[in-house]
Design goal:
The protein has 14 helices and 24 strands. The chain is an alpha/beta fold. A four-stranded mixed sheet has the order 22-23-1-24, with helices on one face. It has a four-stranded mixed sheet with strand order 2-15-17-16. It has a four-stranded mixed sheet with strand order 4-5-3-14, covered by helices on one side. The longest helix has 13 residues. The radius of gyration is 21 Å and the shape is globular. 52% of the residues are buried. It binds uridine-diphosphate-2(N-acetylglucosaminyl) butyric acid (EPU). Uridine-diphosphate-2(N-acetylglucosaminyl) butyric acid (EPU) binds next to helix 1, helix 5, helix 6 and helix 12.
Amino acid sequence: MDIFVIQGGKRLSGTVRVSGAKNAVLPLMAASLLADGPVEIAGAPRLRDIATFGKVLGHMGAEVERIDAGGDGRETVRIDPRKVELAEAPYDLVKTMRASVLVLGPLAARHGKARISLPGGCAIGARPIDQHLKGLELLGARTTLAEGYVEVDAAQLKGATIYFDMKTVTGTENLMMAATLAKGTTLLKNAAREPEVCDLARALRAMGADIEGEGTDEIAVRGVPSLRGVRHEVIGDRIEASTLLLVGAITGGDVTVAGADPSAMDAVLTKIEESGARISVEGGEVRVRRDGPIRSVNFETSPYPGFPTDVQAQFMAYLCLGDGFGIVRETIFENRFMHVAELRRMGAKIDVSGSTAAVKGVPSLSGAPLMATDLRASASLVLAGLAAKGTTEVLRIYHLDRGYESLEDKLSSLGAQIARVKE
Ligand code: EPU
């Protein structure tokens, strides 16, 4: 297993370009199942989750190719869904990646049936899929649970009004995809507004779907008889961008991040500014500089356009070096504070009560061996390690490799001393 060895305490500076957004690519890969021809997703990052999703589609009979677009590390994922026969995703694939649930809507709409292993809980919480299933039933599908599998049967989906009990990103994506081939109009109310949902809507429209309202909390989808293949350039990763900006801020550096839409990061940029770092946006690039102290700030995660839960752990690492108390409330997932125990091992002062963490800033953190527990928690430990005195080893970085492409290379290009070594 690979580990990261980080020599902390260096001020990082320079410009770095983010990869395509993992959480935009995965629904686009699922959407390929709706098409009558090949779908090409340009700018996809080389990540384990994308390879796993490719295996899920390959298992069904789709032809999945990853085409290297040249020296810049950007790949095109090409999926030809025309030979899909088996509308099934088995346990050994689904267990490693919950996003596999995204195939349910497209399979029900295009093939009239689906059978996928029911994703279990995961490290960050129970993460049920009741909203996905409720929506499919409202569209006229029959869903049953048997032997750990969800089975969906649907001769012809019919448009319906679906009101989500809570904002769900993949739930909105799943039902938006299912509705594209349903008969009649579907209204998705209390829909998620995340940029990744909007990117999916844009791609589906280019495939011939009739969708409007993405980016608001009501999306209307008028069903069409069929969808064609498409080539779609995926959006940049706003979570990776936020992480790299925090790298600049925590090390008291000067980092410019290119390739992600700054307006999709408003909540994070505002909090970084409130903490005393300077943010400037020019030509689609965001620059962060900090030379004064880190002012402790409070924040609460919420659905887009609120502060993203996927940046909570990284921002908490930053607050560990704040000049007072910062209160962090996690409202999306019930168990997303696993980084706290590891940060404490570096000298951080954090008290947790339920979904609230009180972070009392300390003057410095000290390097330590640390265990990564999930994707974003791993990133927070890397951030802390970069700012800490001495050497930090982050174990189990396979979690990090699910969602950050060549993070060590990007950080090295900014002057970090970080190496990937075999344990
Ligand atoms: N929820 C339900 N029932 C449902 C669906 C969701 O109770 O049927 C609950 C969840 O348990 C959670 C909340 O609703 O408490 C929001 O979950 P959501 O469905 O929005 O999460 P998701 O779609 O499973 C995506 C991202 C996550 C990100 C969340 C929140 C993808 C592939 N995953 O998950 O990304 O944290 O939205 O923004 O898009 C990550 O990249 O590290 C990651 C975990």
